[in-house]
Every structure is written in C-alpha cells, then in structure tokens.
Prior knowledge:
Rossmann fold, 29% strand, single chain, alpha+beta, 6-stranded antiparallel sheet, globular, 35% helix, binds adenosine-5'-triphosphate, D-amino Acid Aminotransferase, Chain A, domain 1
Amino acid sequence: MSNKNIILIGDSASKRAEFFTKAAHCQNVDVTIIEWEEIFKLNNPKDFFESRLEGAVVKIEPPSFKLVDLALMDFQLKKYIHIMEILEECNAVFLNTPKSILNALNKRYTKKILSENKIEVTQMLFDNVHSSEQLFDMMQKANVYQVFIKPVYFSGAAGVSAFRINPKNGQMRLYTSCYMENGRLFNTKKMNQFENKKEIADFLDRLIGLDVIVERWHPKARINNFIYDLRVVYQFGSIEYIVVRTAKGPVTNLHLNNMAIPYEKLGFSLNKYNEIDRLCSSAVKLFEGMQMAGIDIMLDSNSLKPRIIEINGQGDLIYQDIYAENKIYGQQVQKCENMF
Ligand SMILES: Nc1ncnc2c1ncn2[C@@H]1O[C@H](COP(=O)(O)OP(=O)(O)OP(=O)(O)O)[C@@H](O)[C@H]1O
Ligand SMILES: [Mg+2]
C-alpha cells in the first residue's frame, strides 16, 4: 500500500464505503474510514477534525440515516449541516468541499444560482408558502395547476410531493412516498396517492412546516409508456455515467420500485449527449469546490430539451457501476492520489 492515506467520512457498513475502499485497494491505496456515528457523539468535532484531517485528502459521504419520521430527519439534518460547516474550516483537501456539498443540498440556493445563470432548470414558482390554503390560492392566481413541493434540504425523495388540481372541478391528487399519522409525517419506499382534499390539505400543512420550495411540475419524456429522467454522474470535467430511471408515476427515484435502464436504450445521437454534457459542465462550474456531482436531469416531454432538476454533491452511488466496472470510485481514487 502507498503511504498516501485517503480519509472517507462515512459509514463503514455502507455500499459507498465498501466499493470506494475496493476501488482504492485495486490501486494499492489505503482508505481510513471515520464513522459519522462517532462524529455525531463528539463534544468538540473541530479539535477532532484538526488532529485527524491535517494534510489528508478527504471524501465526505452522507451519513446513513435510518430515520423515517420527517421531523426527526429534519433535526438530524440540522446537526449534519452544523458539522459540515465546522469541517469546511479544517485544513484538509476535499474531493468535494463541505461548502459545495451544502450549497447543492440546499434546493433553494441551487435553483437560484442556476436560474440566475440562465441554466435550464425546473422552474421555482413559490418560495414563501406558509399553508396549504395559501398554496391553492397562489396556484390559481398563477394559473398553474401542477406543482412539485419539496423540502429544501432533504434527499432520497423524502417529502417530495407531486400535486395537481383539476381547474375545472377542483379535484386534487397528490403523489408522495410519505404518509401522515397522528400529525407526523413518515417516509416509505413506495409511492402513495391521495385524493381527499382535507387529507391533502392536512398533509401539505405539515410538509410546508418543514420549509419547502414549490416548483412547476414539468412533464417528463417517456419511453415505452414509462416516464423517465436521468441521473448523470459528472466528475472532473466530463460525464462518467448516466442511468435512466423509468417510472410509472411522476417520481423516478430508484428505491421507489422504479427501474433503471441503460442510456443507450434511449437511442439518442451524440448531439444529445453533448448537450447534456454542456449543461452539466456549466452547472457544476457554479459550485466552487465541487469536482463530482450526481445531477438529476429531465428531458421535456415534447422538445426533449434537458433541464436540471437538482444537483447532489454526494450523488455518485450508482449500483449499475459498482457491481460492474466500479469506474466512478476508481476515477475518484486516482484523482485523490493526485491531490496529495
Ligand atoms: N419540477 C419537477 N418536475 C418534474 N419532475 C420532478 C420535478 N421535481 C422533481 N421531480 C421528480 O421527483 C424526483 C425527486 O426529486 P428531487 O431529485 O428533487 O428529490 P431528492 O429528494 O433530492 O432526490 P435524491 O436526493 O434522491 O436525488 C426527481 O428525480 C424527478 O423524477
Ligand atoms: Mg434527486
């Protein structure tokens, strides 16, 4: 093994840690894992980081939260953000800096910076909603009857809700992987649908309390009657991997019983690939300190124009890759080696 030591802040039992370490060992490089679980117990994380990270190259994986209660997730997330802010001050070299990861995690910030720079992105409609009644009213005034409501900081589709109102008869439908019980929101691994107005209003009132943004629900392209979008892993200035995520409903995340297919199945020309590459490149440039990103991109249903949904500074776990070439992590290890 070389004496250069990469530090992975993560969870050693996770697939992320397992396959990153595998990629490193293939290149004769050591990886030391610092467990998030230990970090959360520390009284003085700053001193700990300073003694452990000095001179190291560090990759930060997300903690493996096992929570399903959205209020508890929110609480845990705030602790995570606080620690990431402390990490940012440390004298280490990061694959993705904590700040760039946090900037991307913040959907409000991401949306703002992308649209200010004229990058095609799902449109933010409302950023200051306080209740379901207000939302219904705002939708009517804006003449928009299909929206996505998303907690600003969550990931893994937790809380993400696709909502439509029929303007003719006021009928409502809401799709989400969550449900509400005794006034609390819980995340699940399957999509649920609600049609009852009171039930939807109660659900939304609770969700909106978590701090949300409201976006236009853009119709996504289809293949063989499945809706799809793309998860593009873009690192070190080029596309490393594209997974097409196909779904029967409006939310395509793969843990929700959706199916991944290879990008080649879409039958696009090289021009489309280059268009996606340019979009990723100009977006990632806006996040200083970010060398790797998992970018969610949808193609408009009619024009097939690519549009960014969101950017994940830790969005590089692709099962189709780790069980095959493991090239995403392989490239990262190589890059880390050059960063010492
Ligand atoms: N405005 C939108 N229009 C159409 N579809 C959308 C829109 N916003 C989100 N979606 C769908 O919902 C999915 C989840 O949204 P998003 O990626 O923003 O949530 P997330 O919780 O951050 O996901 P993850 O962290 O797992 O990537 C998207 O992959 C996409 O399929
Ligand atoms: Mg996403």
